Structures are given as C-alpha cells and as structure tokens.
C-alpha cells in the first residue's frame, strides 16, 4: 500500500507548531490520555503528548532502576511513562497472523525545541518528511517506515526515540513503564508517531509525568511560586501599615478608605492562595480545582474592585463628594459585567486546559475583558478631567495637588501597560517555539506588580488621618478651608498622605492680618 503523493511529505515546522499548540495540560504536569486519537500529518500519524520547559537534573540519574523513584525533591528531572497503551482497530489487527512477532510499530519521540530540525529529512532538498521514504533511505541511511532521527550536535543520545511493537493480531500494545531523564535545560516536546499506514485510527491511553528538580511544577511556572511569596510579603507590609492607620483613626475613616482596605485584604488573600495553589501543584503534579477556582474568583473580585475604586476616586467620591449620586447604578452595572468577563477568562485559563481556549475560542473570552478595560480607562480619565476642572474652579489647592499626583500615577500606569502589551506581543512573536520559557513568568508577574504599585499610590494619597473626614467634604459644604488649616487638620497621623507644604512667609502674613 502506497501513500497518496500529495500526502507523502510534511513540513517539520508545521509538526513542531502542532506539537506546541496541541494538547498541553494547564491543570497538571501529569498528562493523561483517554483514548486520544492520532491525526494524519503528511506521511505520518501522530499525537502530541505534551510540551513543557524542564530544568536539567541537579543529581546524576542511576544507571539502573527498579520501580519508580518516589521522592519529589530528589534533584532529578524526567518524563515518566505510566501504563501507556496503544490501541488499533479490529480490522487492522486481523490483517496479521496470530504469531507475528511485530505487526505494527509506534514510536515515542522526545526532543528539545532547539533540536526540532533533527526530526525528519528532506530528499533532494525538498520538503521535510517525518517518516523515512525509499528515497531518504538511500540518501540518509534511515530505516524505511520509521521516524527519521538525526543525532543532536550536543548529545548523540538525543532526540530520544522509543519503539513499541504490536504483537500478532492483538488490538493493543503496551509500553514498558520507564523514565527519560533530562540532563539539559530546555523546552521538551513529546510525540507519539506511527509511520505504518495500516495503523490509521490509532489511539492511546495512559499518562506521562513531567518532573523538574524541585517538583512537578512546570519550569515556566516555577519562578511564580517564589514570586507569590514576595508579593504576599509586600501585601502583608502594606496591610500592616494601612490597618494600623485604619484602626488608629477609625472614627475619621472615609467610605473611600473602607474600599481601599477591602482591596488590600483581597490582594493579600489572592497572593497567599496563589502560593498554596502552586505549592500543592509542585508537590503532587496535579492542580487543586477548588483552590484554583477560589483564587481566580478572589482575583477577579480584587481586579473589579480596584478598577471601580479608581473610577470612584476619579469621580471625586469620598474627597470631592460623599456619594456618586445617579452614577452609582451605572458603576455597579459596569462592575458586575467586568467581574463576569474576568471570572470566565480566569477560570478558562487556570482551571481548564489551555487547548480548551485556544485560538478563536480564547479571543471570545479575552475580547470582552479588553474592551471593558478600554472603556474603563476612557471613563476614568473623562471623570478625572471634570473633577480637576471643578477643583480649579473652587481654588481647592490641596485637593487639586492630590488629584494631580493621582492623574500622573494613572498616566504612568496606562503608558506602562501599553508598553508592556507591545513587549508581550513582541515576546510571543519572536518565540514561536517557546524557547524563552524561562523568562515567560515575567509577563504574568508584571501585571501583579503594576496593580500593587498603583494601589500603593492610592494608599499614600488617601491614608487615614485624624480630621480628614471633615476636610474631605468641606468643599462640598461650601466651607472650603484655607491651605494651612487643611494641612493642620490632615497631618495629625504618623503617615499623612493629604498634605501641602506651608507657604513661605505665611506666619508673618497672619500677624499682619491681626
């Protein structure tokens, strides 16, 4: 039986793209296969078994091994195969005699992304073919009907190709449980491939475990566990400072400052739960759906409240006016909509698998979130402009100074966000094979750092103090205080965030008035 001429070759880069973008589990480093079917690509049937960044082993693997090594933090990195079984149809099995030693071959291929060109060959400089053809067998000495493998320049034992044979007319072929040890840091890819045209409709069951030296957490996610420790400490320090002032001046706390306290508490809880989520993942290889769902929900609430807080401040809530008036309903409606969009996106990204939201499906979840953010930014700056005009008209210099600082902070945040989005697009566009996976964690970490920085600025500008309740609403009541009196009212606390430098010569001018 010959392959049709239009399917005899395939481009290896397409193979690698399929590998990286296909089944990649976000819920664990344990990749389960539940009868997953092979797909036809060129002259091969293949199935992606996973793709993860793995750090090199920190200790030497044993030359022989009886059973599996059970220690998680043993310094070894490996891909472990457990109960991997390939299944073919009854019609394919019946084509072979009962006593046939080998009636079909499936090959397990493991290679580093840097060695992607070492899988496949190209007769006469044409398109690359995954499986060895008669022409390639003559030119390159490969074995016809098997995957073409060219030894790596750095290690002749890589890429790794493991053979699994069907016996007789059996419908299944089970792979021996074994481990492939990783001695070099890189982005590793696993493929199940068959070059036998009679094995069309092939399926696989079982699982593989991908382990790093310090645990099962994927290499691209491992730095985030330490990052969330750092962020937990940062939020704890901010919480301690804020709540000290909060309790100290409890009777004078504004409604705005209640909202700030809630956002800080949610931020602290989110960082702590992210750490526990990653720690559990690292120790077991599976991600706890309950904790992950809880933490992404807390995160969605925090992001929603932070955005509404910024919008409310821009409208003058708690400083220029005590309530939002008729805008309250619109603000709450926007908040509910943003929370739902953010929650759906986060659950799909962190609780589900990546391939569940790949391509166009993911756009439908990201797009509403992005559009709502753009609308919020527009509304915030429009409201802020009106508030600044109002303060200028009333000559409220102290409040005006605060809002100008707040405007500058927001402007810097927006500029940084746009610049980072451009960098993220550049990062992904220049790394189609995820070879820069060791630095990918920064993409996620940046947004948490930026949100924390902006929250810290808000805390600095509106920290609780002794008499800011009276000062905050003085302008709305028509009793705008002069600069020195407002400073005296709001500087009583140890950390006064609503203050203005005294004008030079003010004491002498007071004496002249007397």
UniProtKB/TrEMBL annotation:
UniProt keywords, alphabetically: Membrane, Signal, Transmembrane, Transmembrane helix
Keyword Acetylation belongs to the record: no
InterPro entries: GOST_TM (IPR053937), GPR107/GPR108-like (IPR009637)
Superkingdom of this protein's organism: Eukaryota
Signal peptide (residue range): 1-28
Pfam families: GOST_TM
Topology in membrane: Multi-pass membrane protein
GOST seven transmembrane domain location: 223-465
Protein name as annotated: GOST seven transmembrane domain-containing protein
Source organism: Coffea arabica (Arabian coffee)
Gene: LOC140035180
């Amino acid at each position: 039986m010959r392959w049709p001429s239009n399917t005899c070759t395939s481009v290896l880069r397409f193979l690698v793209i399929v590998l990286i973008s296909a089944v990649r589990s976000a819920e664990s480093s344990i990749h389960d296969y539940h009868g997953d079917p092979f797909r036809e690509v060129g002259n091969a049937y293949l199935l992606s078994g996973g793709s993860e960044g793995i750090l090199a082993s920190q200790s030497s693997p044993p030359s022989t091994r009886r059973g599996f090594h059970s220690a998680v933090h043993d310094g070894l990195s490996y891909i472990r195969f457990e109960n991997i079984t390939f299944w073919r149809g009854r019609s394919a099995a019946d084509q072979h005699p009962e006593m046939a030693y080998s009636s079909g071959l499936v090959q397990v291929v493991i290679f580093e992304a840097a060695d992607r060109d070492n899988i496949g060959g190209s007769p006469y400089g044409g398109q690359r073919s995954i499986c060895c053809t008669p022409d390639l067998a003559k030119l390159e000495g490969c074995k016809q009907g098997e995957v073409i493998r060219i030894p790596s320049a750095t290690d002749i034992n890589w890429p790794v190709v493991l053979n699994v044979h069907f016996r007789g007319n059996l419908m299944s072929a089970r792979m021996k449980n074994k481990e492939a040890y990783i001695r070099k840091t890189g982005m590793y890819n696993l493929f199940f491939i068959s070059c036998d045209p009679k094995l069309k409709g092939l399926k696989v069951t079982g699982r593989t475990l991908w382990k790093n030296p310090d645990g099962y957490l994927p290499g691209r996610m491992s730095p985030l566990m330490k990052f969330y420790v750092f962020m937990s400490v940062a939020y704890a320090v901010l919480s301690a400072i804020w709540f000290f002032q909060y309790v100290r001046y409890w009777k004078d706390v504004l409604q705005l400052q209640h909202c700030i306290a809630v956002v800080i508490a949610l931020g602290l809880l989110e960082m702590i739960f992210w750490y526990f989520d990653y720690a559990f993942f690292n120790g077991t290889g599976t991600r706890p759906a309950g904790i992950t769902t809880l933490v992404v929900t807390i995160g969605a609430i925090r992001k929603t409240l932070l955005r509404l807080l910024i919008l409310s401040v821009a409208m003058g809530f708690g400083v220029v006016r005590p309530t939002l008036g008729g805008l309250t309903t619109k603000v709450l409606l926007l908040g509910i909509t943003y929370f739902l969009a953010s929650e759906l996106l986060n659950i799909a990204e962190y609780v589900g698998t990546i391939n569940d939201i790949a391509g166009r499906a993911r756009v439908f979840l990201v797009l509403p979130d992005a559009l709502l953010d753009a609308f919020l930014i527009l509304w915030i700056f429009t409201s802020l402009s009106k508030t600044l005009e109002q303060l200028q008209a009333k000559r409220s210099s102290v409040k005006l100074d605060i809002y100008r600082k707040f405007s500058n902070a927001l402007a810097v945040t927006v500029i940084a966000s746009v610049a980072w989005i451009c960098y993220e697009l550049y990062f992904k566009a220049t790394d189609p094979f995820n070879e820069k996976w060791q630095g990918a964690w920064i993409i996620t970490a940046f947004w948490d750092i930026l949100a924390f920085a902006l929250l810290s600025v808000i805390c600095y500008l509106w920290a609780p103090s002794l008499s800011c309740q009276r000062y905050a609403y003085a302008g709305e009541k028509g009793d705008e205080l002069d600069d020195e009196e407002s400073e005296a009212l709001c500087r009583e606390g140890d950390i006064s965030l609503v203050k203005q430098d005294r004008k030079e010569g003010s004491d002498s001018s007071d004496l002249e008035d007397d």
